[in-house]
Known about the structure:
By secondary structure, this protein is of the alpha+beta class. Helix content is 14%, strand content 21%.
Amino acid sequence: MRPRLLTLFLQITSLFVASSAFAENRLSIVVSIPEQRLYVFNPSGEEITKYKISTSKFGIGNSSGSYSTPLGRFEVASKIGSGAVIGTVFKNCSRTGEIVAVNARGRDPIVTRILCLRGLEAQNASAFGRRIYIHGTPDEAHLGQKVSYGCIRMRSSDIIALYETVESGASVEIVNERVGSSFAKARRQPIPLPMVASAPAPAKTKPKTAEATTASTGTASSGTVAAAKYLGSTGMGESTGKSKALSLSEPLIGEPETPKSTPKKKSVASTTGGKGRS
Length: 278
């Protein structure tokens, strides 16, 4: 009986060690909205590569029906499209059988590969339900501009490379700031905690006499403690969520609603764009 228990213990230990090593070696993604770039960092915070992308034409946010791009920390919940040829069209995360050429006129579907994102914070908790993805687009001519309907769009060849590089569970952060060379490294290292000075013991007072009536006192200084923020890897494993069926005439990303109209004003320019986009 003992040898069996020992064998079982060793197997569990080896699985735990392998899982820990996998998590430590996992790459992470940072999306910069001002730069319209997607960066890939190794666990040491060193930049491996970067890609030109497109985020939402409707700005930043996470409201249903807004078609905006949410900020904050996410994880890659699942990966879809293994083996699909460039230009393969997806609807509700399933292949339609159609293949669209690069920069095909009048077409703007999700193509080639999909990385589904799950929000890890209150500000982006609905991202998975809104179907916020990193995915391929045939509209490569407009990459580098804010033209999407909430998702992060990439060139088909780039999303294939990213798909093969990162694993499910990889950390993704979308930020509204420029990404410097030390961005991820600085975020992985804890902020040094300042020393907090302790109060000195009160000085002993001399017995009062006719000549001396004074006493000395002690004072204490205080310090502040800074919180450490990390861009670490999150949980492992894939997640499959049931998507709401949409018609081809509706956007593939977000709720099947149109953006809320602004109060009536004179000479207000309307935002135009084709349906069935992301």
